[in-house]
Write a structure and sequence with these properties.
Elements lengths: L2 H46 L14 H26 L3 H31 L8 H32 L10 H25 L3
Helix pairs in contact: 1-4, 1-5, 2-3, 2-5, 3-4, 4-5
Length: 200
């Protein structure tokens, strides 16, 4: 093999490894921008939390139900950690099991949120009811969209694991999805505390 060919091969190998830190940095930048966006939405909710225009307010919140739903979402962080640990140990089967478990818990949280929204609508709290209703649905709904995206990513990871494609070029994806999922959980802790507990 010529010196030029060797250098090209080494360069390609180095570029292959350089991609991972770049992707991880990009994820952190994305999460940072999302944190700022959620911060703005939470601030908007706090600004309008008492502006109900005579409609229902925080008194319709079912704290026990939302607490249980929140616990389910927080448990998904544990299963995500287990998925990542299994991935690091190259245990594809356990990685898949815990990815599916995490996706299931996320989907369960979403089902609870949809049920909660339905109950609130029946009690008269809709998006156009008041600034309180608008800011509440925008904040919690936007978070719900993030959970839904996470569930789809987790499901995709589980499917990729069937063919062993989580390794090689896609190897960091489990870590990236894990970072995203933990971010979603942390944001929910803040939302649950500010929107539900402090309003009770």
């Amino acid at each position: 093999m010529t010196d030029a060919a060797i250098e090209a091969a080494q360069s390609g190998h180095e570029d292959h490894h350089d991609v991972k830190p770049v992707r991880k940095t990009a994820m952190w930048v994305f999460l940072g921008s999302e944190f700022v966006f959620f911060g703005a939405m939470i601030s908007t909710f706090l600004l309008y939390r008492n502006t109900t225009n005579g409609g229902p307010g925080s008194e319709i919140f079912d704290i026990p139900f939302t607490s249980a739903s929140s616990f389910v979402l927080l448990m998904s962080s544990l299963t995500m950690v287990l998925a990542h640990n299994a991935f690091e140990n190259k245990d594809m089967r356990q990685t898949r099991v815990w990815l599916i478990a995490t996706a299931f818990l996320g989907a369960t949280f979403l089902a609870g949120q949809i049920f909660e929204f339905t109950e609130f609508i029946h009690k008269g709290l809709t998006l156009p009811t008041s600034p309180f209703g608008s800011s509440f649905y925008m904040l919690t709904g936007f978070h719900g969209i993030h959970v839904a995206v996470g569930v789809m990513l987790l499901t995709a990871m589980a499917i990729l694991s069937l063919s062993g494609r989580l390794y090689d070029d896609r190897g960091l994806n489990v870590e990236l999805v894990g970072l995203y999922w933990h971010f979603v959980d942390i944001i929910w802790i803040v939302i649950f505390t500010v929107v539900y507990l402090l309003q009770a």
